[in-house]
Design brief:
With 80 residues, the protein is α+β, with helices and mostly antiparallel strands. Helices cover 24% and strands 28% of the residues.
C-alpha cells in the first residue's frame, strides 16, 4: 500500500478548511457537525479541531485501513 496525497501543501492554512468542505466525513468515521470549527480558518478553535480530526480519522476500503497524516501536505497513509 502506498501513501496518497489528498491536499497539497500549497493550500497552507486552508488544508483543514478544504478537508471540511470537500471530503466525506462519514467515510473517515467522523461526523462533520463535530468539526464545524474547520469551516472558518479564523475560528479560535480551528487548529484544535484539526488536531483532533487527524487523531481520530480512520478510513476503511478494499485497499486497507488508512489514517491521515499532515507533513506539509495532507496524506492518507496505511494504518498498519
Amino acid at each position: 500500500m502506498k501513501t496518497l496525497l489528498l491536499i497539497d501543501e500549497t493550500r497552507g492554512i486552508y488544508i483543514p478548511f478544504d478537508f471540511y468542505h470537500k471530503f466525506d466525513f462519514s467515510s473517515w468515521g467522523l461526523n462533520s457537525s463535530d468539526y464545524r470549527d474547520l469551516s472558518d480558518p479564523e475560528n479560535e478553535h480551528y487548529w484544535d479541531a484539526w488536531e483532533e480530526l487527524l487523531e481520530k480519522a480512520i478510513h476503511y476500503n478494499e485497499d486497507g485501513t488508512w489514517r491521515l497524516e499532515q507533513d506539509g501536505s495532507l496524506f492518507a497513509v496505511p494504518a498498519e
